Amino acid sequence: MNESPIQIFDQARRFYTTCNFGSARRLIFQYRRLVQYDDFQVLRDLSCYSKTSLSIVVVFHIALPEISRCIDLLIRQTKKLSTGSVEIVIVSNGCNDEEFCKSMLQSNVSVVLASHNFLPSEGRNIGAYFARGSLIAFVDSDGLPESGYIDEIFNGFRGDVVAIRGRVQSTSDEYIPPHYDLGQGSVDVRLNVEGNMAIRRSVFRGVGGFDPLMYGHEGHDLTDRILKLLPNAQIKYCPDMVLRHEFAVGSALDAKRQRQSLGDKYRRWLSERTEAYSLQRHKQF
User: Fold this and answer.
1) Cα dist from 124 to 171, 179, 204, 214, whole Å
2) Does domain 36-277 have CATH number 3.90.550.10?
3) I need a labelling partner for 171 at 20 to 30 A (CA). Which of 140, 206, 229, 255 fits?
C-alpha cells in the first residue's frame, strides 16, 4: 500500500528523533516529492490581489488567546505603515478549530488549514509557499510585536542584506537567555531566533527553506545553507525589531534543550557528509 505524505513525514520524524538520520533524510526527500501544498484549504486566497512587499508567516497548532493578540497587533501595524505593503499568512498546523481560524481573517490576512501538525519548520515552509512578498518574516504565534516592528523589518533590508533577526525581550522581568537580546548595536548574526526573523524570499526558496525534520536549531541549519550558497551573505541583527516573548521554564525548557541537542547532533552528522546530503530544493518552491 502506498503511504500518504503525512505518514511518510511522521515516519521520517521518528527516524530523526532516534538519530537514524540517513533513513530520516531519505524519507523526508520522498515526502517533499509527494506533498502538494495546493491541496491544503486556504481561507481567503490573497493570490488575486495586488502585489505585496512583505509576507508575515505565523504558524500555530493550538487555538489560544495569545495568537489572536499577536495577529491583532500585526494587523494594527499594517494600517500605519510608512512604506511597503504587507500580508499576513497564518498556518493552522493541524488545529481543527475552524471558527477560531475564521475569526482572524481580514482583508490582508489568509489562513492555510494544514490537516496535520507538521511542526514549526514545515509549517513555516507551508506559509512561505503561499507568501507573495519579496520578503518573508516568521513571527512566533505567542509573541507580541512592539510598535514599529514591521517598519523595522523594511529598514533592516538595506544594501545587500539577505536576512535579519530581531531582538526578543521578556514580557515580564524574568530571565531571558542572552542570545535573545544582543543589545542596541547592529551586528552580524546567525538566524538563531526563528520566531523573530525575516529573509528574502528568493534566498529562502533557493536554499530549500527550513529542514522539515528539525524542531530545534533549525535556524542554525538554515544559516549554514545560506552561507554555503552565498559565502559573503550579510545576515544582520536588528535591535529595534522587538518581539516580546516569554522564555520556556521547567519541563518545557528541558524538552526545548533536548530538541536543540538533537538538532546539533544532526548538524554535525550533516557536516560529515558529502554534497549529496545538502537539502534538496523544494519542488513546491
Assistant:
1) 24, 22, 11, 12
2) yes
3) 255
